TrEMBL record:
Keywords in alphabetical order: Membrane, Signal, Transmembrane, Transmembrane helix
Keyword Signal: yes
Listed transmembrane segments: 607-630
Organism encoding this protein: Tsukamurella sputi
UniProt keyword Membrane, yes or no: yes
Residues in the signal sequence: 1-27
The protein's name: Cellulose biosynthesis cyclic di-GMP-binding regulatory protein BcsB
Amino acid sequence: MNRSRVRAFVAAAIVLTQFAAVAPAHADPDTGAVVLPLAATGDSGTVVLPGLQATRTLAVPTPRGALPAELRARVTAPPFVSSVTVDVLQEGRTLSRTVVPRPAANAPIVLPLTGIRPQQVSTTVTLRTWLQADGQCLFDDADALRLTDTSVGYAGAPAQPTTAADFLPPVLSRVSLLLPARPTREEGAAAVRLAAALSAHYPGAPLTVTTGAIPVGGAAGTTSPFERQIVISGTEPRSFQLRTGASGTYAVLGGSADDLTRTAALLTSDLAPLAASSGVLVEQPVAAPQLPRVMGTLDELGIGTLTATALYRPTVTVGIDQTQLGGPVRDVRVRLAGTYSPGTTGEAGRVVVSAGDRTLASWPADATGTFDRWVDVPNDLLARYTALTVALDRPVARGGCGEGGAATLSVDGSSEIRRATASPPAPSGFQSLPQALMPRMQVAWTRGDLPDVRRAVAVVSALGRMARAPLGVDVVDADEAVRSRVPALFIDADGARSADLPLRVRAGSGGTIEAARPDGAKVVLRLDPQLRAASLQVIADADRTLVVATSNGEPGLLDAELDWLAADPTRWPTRTGDVLLQTPNAEPVQLNTAPPAAARSSSDRGWVAAAAAAGAVAVLLAVAAAVVLVRRRRRG
């Protein structure tokens, strides 16, 4: 496997790993200590340390009342490594040194954090590694020390919250939103907005947000330090209050529509640390988060300066995340400014910029040790997340292992990313989410009951987990969402408004299945007996994107589809196509009804039309296959 393909594979793996299923925090069976997987924070849980010498900083979650005591992981080194040494440092102080002679693959390793000075929310430590190699040098990108399944062991137990300021812990695995059995629109809107805000507050983390009715006897709270319960009720006093239930502390949000909106916004805002009381009344609206402008520096985007040190090929990755840029983008230009270790005359090498397996730019690494270049990213390479790799390619040192010294490459935080807005978004369909709904989206439902609120919360929280910037959410009535040109999520659980929506696949009440063609024509399949079905559809509707959750009179099938998506955190981010169709007693079927990329010349139009027609027929054949499968299962 060549280096460029390794880089592309690693970038894709990083993106998918952050959504992988994560084991929850648990008690050590031997010591009873709380153990928290780093993946629960949105980190991949894998620490890669390339080269004979490497450093990596880690943010260790630090819940109130618990002291980080050790890092636990499984270590894997290249086969020619005879010894591994890992130091853990904090602010220049060595907390521990651990030596592992000839480590086996996936060997357990424990790194003590003796003498750590805890900080609020998270504590930063640095890992520094040395590898002793048997007659070989590490210079290939794929050769690295890897710590996998990294977790933190704590001394002491996280404390229950006592004020609004510490209600949300550094790591949150589950939050239960409890509403009246018959919620008002304002209560439902507060739940949806809070779900979006919580997902943004824990970016990339596998946070589960559930919605249910307030129990008859009231909320009980929870014993888990990484779970929370929040009651939302307009009949409660207009404030945020902490209360104690049978199992622990829970929060209550009460008051009018404005009160609920303000209080929900406070919980995840920068002002939350000021709320050092068990009861808080928010008198003025909390300012909404600001999204980046057309141009943003790496510092402004929260990426900061990127630095790598390695013996032969120091490499950094500039992540172009459309959700971090606040919407679908095209025509991306990146100004890369930075420094590198200049080599000796004739041996300096080159600075190479690539995306996937395509080299976008390269230039000689001259003796100045600095660079400042603009690089264009082709539109066909732009995905929800695009990894732009910057590497210093140097000649392999001659002589003994490690001769020549390490080199450092740095991309400064003042580097810029410029972009234009893409309309329609690219990529399309599910891969356009959530950026196609940003910076602000509408949410509407047809029934407005608790199940509708639960469906909206499920979709919005899933979209929020994929976003690196907050989703702006406005809950509106169904008529406004139909007429509006603003991106929207439309919950039409029983299909009552299907005639008003530009659905790509439509399951009629008379047994018909229709698939739309890009030219406006329809391909129709009539089923006897008729098939009940639900679907989640992503529709490019003129200049906006519309996400519709619907069925032909079978809301339970829609719930089954949303439950299927929620059961595995990787399912939402890896969906392709634009329709996810759910039929009885089967897993959802993924379909692609969208038109091919628009032809650039008239000579391509005939091919596009033929491909579109073939695509519509293929969709109906897929539906027919699902019908046959369902009927066979019923006979069985």
